[in-house]
Structure formats: C-alpha cells, structure tokens
Amino acid sequence: MSDNKTNKENKPGEPDPKPGKQVPGPSRIMIFYFLIATILGIWILYSYYGGHFTPDQIQYSTFRNELRADNVREVTVQGDRVEGELREPARRPGPEGDTISYTEFVTHLPSFGDDELMAMLEQSNVEVTTVPERDNTWLYFIFMTLPFILILIIGITWYRRMNSQGQGMFSIGKSQAKLHKPGEGKRTTFDDVAGGDEAKRELQEIVGYLKKPEKFDKLGAKVPKGVLLYGAPGTGKTLMARAVAGEAGVPFYSITGSDFMEMLVGVGAKRVREMFKNAKENAPAILFIDELDSIGRRRGAGLGGGHDEREQTLNQLLSEMDGFETNESVIVMAATNRPDILDKALLRPGRFNRRVEVGLPSQEDRVKILKIHARGKPMDDDVDFEDVSRGTPGFTGADLENLLNEAAMLTARDDRDKINQHDIDMARDKIIMGLERRGVVLEDEERRMLAYHEAGHAIVAAVLDNTDPVHKVTIIPRGQAMGVTQQLPERDQYLYRKEHLLDRLAVIMGGRAAESMIFNTATSGAENDLKQVTKLARKMVLDWGMSKAFRYTALGGQREEVFLGEQMGSQREYSDETAREADRAVNEILEEAYNRAESVLKKNKKAFDRLAELLLEKEEVMGDEILKLVGKKRKAPAKTTVAGSIGGQNGSGRKKEEKSAESDDKELKEDSSKEETAASSDNHKPKSSTTGKKKKSASQTKTENTEASGKSGKSGDGRAKSSSGNHQNSKTSSRSKSKKTMEKKSEGKSDNT
Q1: What is the separation of C-alpha 424 from the centre of its chain, rounded to a whole number of angstroms?
Q2: Catalytic residue, candidates 454, 515, 598, 657
Q3: First vs last Cα of the chain: how many Å apart?
Q4: Which of 105, 152, 434, 517 has the fewest CB atoms within 10 Å, counting from its CB?
C-alpha cells in the first residue's frame, strides 16, 4: 500500500525520489563566486561601454549657437551640467574625421558663469527644468574601489582555505604529521592484529621501553631509535605501528613520505625539523613515517642527477635521528615495501638499526584474520574458515578483507541475508582468475579444442604424485584466459623439490600435448603455458642447479629490478659456449616434461576423453570428480612442525626439557615409593641420588635430541631463506611470492587468444 500511495502523490513523468537521498543543490561557495563574477562583469561593461549610453558631449559654444538658431527644444540643468534635446538633428565632427548626427546633448556651464543664458532660453521658448545637485562622491568612490574590494575578498577566502588544508603561505614549512593522542578515537592493540607473532615479539620491547624506560636504563640497554617495518603491501605494517602506540599509550604522529615533498627546495627539511620538535615536546612519543622509500631512496643512483629537495629532506632526517638523546623517549617507526632501495646511511646502527619483517600470514593466521574481518557480516553455517584459509595461500590481510567484501557483494546481488561458502569461493575465483565472460561466442570446434586442452592439464595434474591438488577446471572464459585449470596447494610451501618442479612442468605442458595428441596441431592458446615453462626451466638450470650439466653452478647472477639505472650496465658472467649449453639443458628439461605429459594422457585416454566430454556438457568440473575419473584419492596431509617450537632463542625447547624432566622425576619417585614403602630417610638419600642421575640422564637425552632438532631446523630455515631469494622471479617462489605463484598457476593452465 505504501508504494501505491507514493505513486499517487508523485506527478506524472516525475521520477520517484529515493529514500534517504537528498537532491544536490548549488553550494554556497559557488553562489558567492557567481555573484562576484556578475558584479565584475557589470563594472567592466560600464567602464568600457558606459559612455555609449549617455548623450553626446558637445562644446558650450556649440550649445549657444544651436540656442541662437532656435534649435533647442528643452534643457535640464543640474549644477553646472546642462543636458538637452534639439528640435532638428545636428552634426558634429567624429573621431576619424567624419561627422556624427545627434539630437540629445550634454554640456557644462563655464566656471565663470553665463548671465545671458537664461534670457536666451526664454527668448527661444525653451523648456527649462532644474534638478538639485546631488553629492555622488561616496557612490563614485565605492563604485571605483569595488573591484579591488572583491579581489581582496577572494584572496582572503583562498588564503583561509589553504590554511585549513595546512598549505598556507606562512605555514608551508609546518609539519604535516597528524597527531593521535591516547584516548582519542578507537584504541588499537596487538589483540586487533591477527598473526605476525614474530613482529609482535620484536615490538614488545619498544612498548616495554615506552612504558617503563627505567627498567632498561638500569641495565644500560639502549632501545633502538628507529624501527623499520618492511614487507609486501597489505600485510598490516601501519596497523602494527598503531598497535605499538595503542599498547604503550603514548602520542602517535603519522605522516607519509610524500607529505615532505614540495615544489620549493628546503620545505621538506623544515617540516622534518618541525615534526621532531613537536614530538620531543610530547615525549614519550612515536613518529611513524609511511612509504619511507619516497624520501629515503639511495642517493647518487639516478640517471639524470639527484633530486635536491628529496636529498635535503633525507639529510635532515638523518641528522635528526642521529641527534636524539636517550632520555627523550622518541622512537621513529617507518614502513616500506622496498627496503632494498633505501639509503645505507638510513639503515646503519643508530638510526633504523632494527628491521622487522611483517610477512605474509600463515594458514593459521589467515583463519584469525578471516574471523576478524567477518565481524559484522552474517555468515551461513556452511562457511569453513579453515577451508578458505587453505585455498588462499599468499593472501595478505588486505586481500582477505577484500575477499569477504566481494563475497558480501555477491550475496547482496542475489538478495540473500547470509554469506555462504559458495559466495566466498566465487569471490576467490574472481580475485585470482578475473571476471567471467559468459557472453563470448565460440564455435563448437573451438570449444572442443578448449575442453581437451584444459582436460590435458587436469589429467596430468591428477595423475602425477608431486603436484598440487586440482581444485576445479573450467572452460568459461575468465579475464584474458579462455579456460582455467585451478590448483590450490594444501599448505604454505617454502621449499620446492626437483620432482615437484618437473611435475609442474609436465602439468603445464599437458595442454599442448593434448592439442597435438587429439587434433594433431598447435594453437595460440598455449602461449602463456610456453612462457611459463620456459621461465621455470631456465630458473632450474641457471639458478637452482637442477640440470646434469650445471649441478653445482648458479649462472643466473643478480637479476634484480632496475633501480634508477644502477643495473642497466650489468653484464653476463659466463661465456657464449656456456650459454649454449644452458639453452640445451633447458630444452632437454622441456622435452622431458612434454613427453611425460603425453605419456600420462595416453595411459589415461579413457579418463581424458570423459573429462573433455564433461567439460563440454557442464563447462566446469570439480577436482574430486577428476580424481574419481583417474581412480585416485586425495593424499593425506603431510606432517608439519612449527619452526622454533622445538629449540631456538624463544626458549620453548628449554621449557619442554624442564617439563619432561619433571615428569620423569615424578615417575621415578612414584616407582621408588611403591617398591620401598618401609624405607628410612637414610635409605632415601642414595635413591634420591640415583633418581637425580636418572633424571639427569633423561634430561641429557632430551637435550641432545632437542639440540639436534634445533640444528636441523636451523639449517632448514637457512635453506628456506635461500630458496626464497632464489625463487624471487619464478612461479615456484617462497611464501612471500606465493600469491603471485597461485595466480600464475591459474593463468599457466589457461588459453589466451
């Protein structure tokens, strides 16, 4: 009923107003500027064209001649001004030598007066009108000064607006840092930051120093003056810095590196001085500089010279950080995505001498992050955050927040009240693989080739043992890909065995092998596949020593991103003959991968054909159905151990040793009490000694095992770091690049047209 009533009240052809939405009107500032422009326009028109609307100015002698000729009809006298009208038009000389005809005129009486004028007017029967003289001095003054007043008003308004934005002429050198005082707004603590336990542990010392500096002063300890947070974008570096300020309960100044930069040289340095001055006045305090690399880039590495303003700002920052005193309790925190391009003087001890990596969240951390971002979102009972976490390796906290937001958008699109698991899966596919393009029209032969191509990827991935599980395969175009075979790892992987990489190459080659095997041709859809296998195989040969010819040599060198032309002149460090051998080794690996893929497809021809038929029928097949076709089951998850849980600097290993020693001692005491219930105190002493020996023996045994495990864990960690560095530009990268890896895996098995 309410809808019908609303429709009756609205006029025909008038759109229904949306509830809660106001019709926008002109702002006051726009009306003000319009009035100013109108007044200025009128003044300009009057100044230039005002004379054209007044009667012609004639000489007083000409007026007397016309009066003698009885050609004046009437006059109006106001002070010394005489304005009149002629009976017949007269002519006067123009500005360019011609003559101008006029009937209305204006002239002025001479200063000495004219006693005969009134008699002449009466003689010619002229109508005379007198008007009292008015004082127009103030009006004339206001009219002439009005433009200058308007210009002054505009200048004052603009000046106030610049001051409100912190860009006033007199405040251009003031600090742009925003102050967040304790108790104002929402307080952020470490409980609001899911994951990042290692970073939290490092930052706890900063919090402890800001709370109780005397505790550190007694021990002669000096807390780092600068803490650099680095990591991939979206990992929560800024949130971590706010949590430190929230835990410590001190003023928090936040600023970005670009806020220091201005057109005028020296402004950035002045703002740095002002910022540190304000922080010292409110000490203890925290200064947080986001995107430090915008002002902290390495000096002297440019192609076209340095940047004076940026370098002066950096020099001032170095000077302020080095001039701190220990009792000022001001700590500088900064965040960057590119610590490799920062100036060395900025990273030396005494400045940013503590570097904390805020890495990508682990699988357990992703579950915690998902639960935090799920607050305020109605979730269905079938949502399993553990499953979502397993399917999102490499996702940052920002990515996970975006994932749930996309799922909520899909739920709202379908007019449902709760977010279910399917919505989250669809949102993940949208983020990783792109939007579906269901409007693409394909010929039947193209669809068949596409189905066999993707079936080739999926069958090889399902049959081989060292591959990631197939999540699903689809021939629905997504993004730039015409079809996708999606594999999702069961856990975060830090090291990649040679067998895994060889199987990975075979999976990517499965599409080209299927084209050749079924259609005896090759298509352009395998372009991305070939690029990926070539890049991965070259990485195996040049960097990881996974070929027979180069088992102990890394020929790849240092292939970093070009930074300001510094690496533009890098040269190859091996001969042409070695390069040819490396190319042969790469080709051998690729040939072997293709032959393995073709062999797998031939052995599983029945499942291969059936999967292609299913894709043509349903356009999308899940991984469990593919496993049934090849007669395999999902592999059991591998055993995992948390790094540092056995031994290491955190002392958890020692705690376990003490607990196990205590339990052994308790068991030994219970056994001795049962066997010798009537023993005296003297007899207990040697037994206690024996017990102590047994206890010591058990403790020594566990200590040795712990040390061995700690050493192995340490070496494994070293290998992980080495692998992480080597995998930087490859699809098989460490967890810091695992999201990009997953995207490449999806794209690697896709057909690009």
Answers
A1: 22
A2: 454
A3: 54
A4: 152
- At 253, give phi and psi (nearest 5°): -100, 125
Radius of gyration of the chain (CA): 43
DSSP 8-state assignment for residue 572? -
**Amino acid residing at 304:** G
Strands 178-180 and 252-256: antiparallel
Closest CA to 260 of 127, 166, 368: 166
Q: How far apart are CA 137 and CA 120, in angstroms?
A: 33
Catalytic residue at 561?
no
Closest residue by Cα to residue 672 from 649, 656, 695, 653:
695
For range 669-681, the mean pLDDT? 41
Which residue type does 548 have?
Answer: K
The rounded Cα 407 to chain-centroid distance in angstroms is 20
Distance CA 378, CA 690 (A): 63
CA distance 356 to 341: 16
Asked if the bond preceding 132 is cis, omega within 30° of 0, the reply is no
In this structure, are residues 401 and 373 in contact, taking their beta carbons and an 8 Å threshold?
yes
Separation between Cα atoms, residue 180 and residue 485, nearest integer Å = 48
Q: How many helices (H) and strands (E) does the chain have?
A: 24, 14
Predicted confidence at residue 574, as pLDDT, reads 82
Amino acid at 700: Q
pTM above 0.70, yes or no: no
Q: What is the pLDDT of residue 537?
A: 94
Interhelix angle for 421-433 vs 738-748, to 10°? 80
**Which amino acid type is present at position 616?**
L
Average pLDDT score over the chain:
75
> Looking up tokens 């105190």, which residue turns up?
681
Render 481-504 in DSSP notation, one character per residue. BS-EEEE--SS------HHHHHHH
Q: What is the pLDDT of residue 312?
A: 80
Rounded Cα distance, 570 and 646, in Å = 44
